[in-house]
Amino acid sequence: GSLAVSELAAKLHRESAEIIKKLFLQGVMATKNQELDKDAIELICAEYDVEVEEEVDVDVTDLDNYKIEDKEDDLQERPAVVTIMGHVDHGKTTLLDSIRDTKVTEGEAGGITQHIGAYQIEENGKKITFLDTPGHAAFTSMRSRGAQVTDIAILVVAADDGVMPQTVEAINHAKAAEVPIIIAVNKIDLEGANPDRVMQELTEHGLIPEDWGGDTIFVQLSAKKREGIDDLLEMILLVTEVEELKANPNRPAEGTVIEAQLDKGRGPVATLLVQNGTMHVGDSIVVGHSYGRVRAMVNDLGRRVKTAAPSTPVEITGLNSVPNAGDQFMVFKDEKQARQVGEAKQQRQVEENRSSGARVSLDDLFNQIKQGEVKDINLIVKADVHGSVEAMAASLEKIEVEGVKVRIIHTGVGAITESDVILASASNAIIIGFNVRPDTNAKKAAESENVDIRQHRIIYKVIEEIESAMKGMLDPEF
Ligand code: GDP
């Protein structure tokens, strides 16, 4: 920016004449009202030992503006975060399960595994974190939200089937993310297993084994028979070492949402992957467009924990709404600041939705699904009695049409309120009222926010309506 001589003088608590004289001595002829550029301002400020701080419009909703830079000395090794990818039926889920079953229970006696979207194991005294949702769809949908959580990709290829279309897709997704790939040639216990053919086929995609002069690590295993699991884990540790993955555990936590949903008893529940810093119970946190204080943290063994170090997944409660997978989160030292940023983000979300007209309405849901604009249908369910809320939420959550799922982000007993509408607006949700109506404020808000409220008196009609809307078979309304 620029500043007039008189303005600069005022800021420095000097007379304009004095500044003009200084400028003159520097070879700059100036009058009182003359605008000075950044260089001239800096020149004068340097004379008075004053540091120039440029005023810029900071986006208060951009978490990047609150990021703390780490000093190299503060960084310590952290566990790798691993995603398992590959063609359908090649054994991704089986591999995830056998790693967890063989490793988690070994050390942690009495632990009961909880599916929170990610888990951590220990091999040779070192930890490894696995994301529990196999496949590149989840991987890339997170990346499309700006979240890079995966450090290493395991590509599972069945030795009896070889490279298939989704194998190639997975390779491309991992390459696009510049993530190192380890090949797990699976099902070597089968009669028709032909690991050599798999290796041969993969060379066509630039994945060449070390024995053949390349640098791709291949591990042969049987996920089902639990053979070769240790080899794979050792290779992961090897790659981890090469990658020099680091984080600073001694700072406020930040990271990414792995998954989130509304829990009947606990409210919004989110699995967070801490990517830097350490998270503590009681921390003030902004997560996507929701915020709150970390009320409780539960790890992948269902145990309550008080802290979560880098690369650790934990399930937290205490947020005011349900964030999205792939959302960034950040802990703020100052509770007030967290609330301000959180509120601003929520508000921003509402405005963006309003201006982009991105609002989902049941009438054009099918079109949006077809165009791939909608992947989840967010619903808010309100009813007159608790039992109906539960029954409806349970049946609605089962609906899935062409990979598009229903996601209940909020439920409640009683009339539809303005706050329900704001939440719907912020989350592109449709509100379902069962034997309840919107109050006056909610009605007004729904109109201005363009939020779709559907009112019903019979449960199966609700289910039917949502299902038909997803299939593009909604009856026109008269
Ligand atoms: P995903 O679709 O990639 O998650 O594959 P799954 O893990 O569901 O496995 C598909 C099928 O392959 C299941 O019937 C598994 O039992 C079977 N399977 C997985 N790993 C192995 C293995 O190492 N050997 C054999 N014989 N079968 C396996």
UniProtKB/TrEMBL annotation:
Protein's UniProt keywords contain Signal: no
Residues of the full protein shown: 138 to 615 of 713
Region (G-domain): 80-228
GO cellular component entries: cytosol
Location of this chain's protein in the cell: Cytoplasm
Keywords: Cytoplasm, GTP-binding, Initiation factor, Nucleotide-binding, Protein biosynthesis
The Tr-type G domain, residue ranges: 77-246
UniProt: GTP binding residues: 86-93, 132-136, 186-189
Family: Belongs to the TRAFAC class translation factor GTPase superfamily. Classic translation factor GTPase family. IF-2 subfamily.
Protein name: Translation initiation factor IF-2
Molecular-function annotations in GO: GTP binding; GTPase activity; translation initiation factor activity
Job description of the protein: One of the essential components for the initiation of protein synthesis. Protects formylmethionyl-tRNA from spontaneous hydrolysis and promotes its binding to the 30S ribosomal subunits. Also involved in the hydrolysis of GTP during the formation of the 70S ribosomal complex.
Naturally occurring in which organism (per UniProt): Terribacillus aidingensis
Major localisation: cytoplasm
